[in-house]
Amino acid sequence: MRLMNNDQVNGNKKILVGACLAGRPCRYDGNMNCMLFQPGDPTVVLICPEVEGGLPVPREPAEILGGDGYDVLAGFAKVVTRQGKEVTKEYVKGAEKALDLCLKQGVTHAVLKSKSPSCGSGKVYDGTFSGTLKEGFGVTAALLAYNGIRVTDEHSTGNLS
Ligand code: SF4
Prior knowledge:
Blueprint: H1 6-10, E1 15-18, E2 44-47, H2 49-52, E3 62-65, H3 69-74, E4 78-81, H4 88-105, E5 109-112, E6 121-125, E7 133-137, H5 139-146, E8 150-153
Helix pairs in contact: 4-5
Iron/sulfur cluster binds near residues 116 and 118.
């Protein structure tokens, strides 16, 4: 398996990386994604917005209902679990913590997991829990992008510079 280091991705400027892309088992199901970033790289700042927002591991999967992350931040859409529990507050809190971290650490770019209701950029699941994707951003990805941070996913790290 080939690990990326930040020098390849962002010329050694600090980047925010979704923790599940660096080997942390913080996914909703408690599993790891494949490890794409070297843990321990001082220029890589890790965060899992859902855990930072107060959600446990494992947790019920959630999707955005009625829009995407931008609509959640504007108050027009919400994040609900498969069982129908609303977790919008936790998602927004996690997004705010991620933005805070970026501002404090001078982060200008982020690599976040595709399709996630927090981290997805470009496409997210459509709220029907049927595996269907729609255009849009997750809540954290939307807040970061709105604040001028360049957000991409693990498939498009070449677009960062
Ligand atoms: S996709 Fe984002 S919120 Fe979900 S486990 Fe990974 S880092 Fe956490």
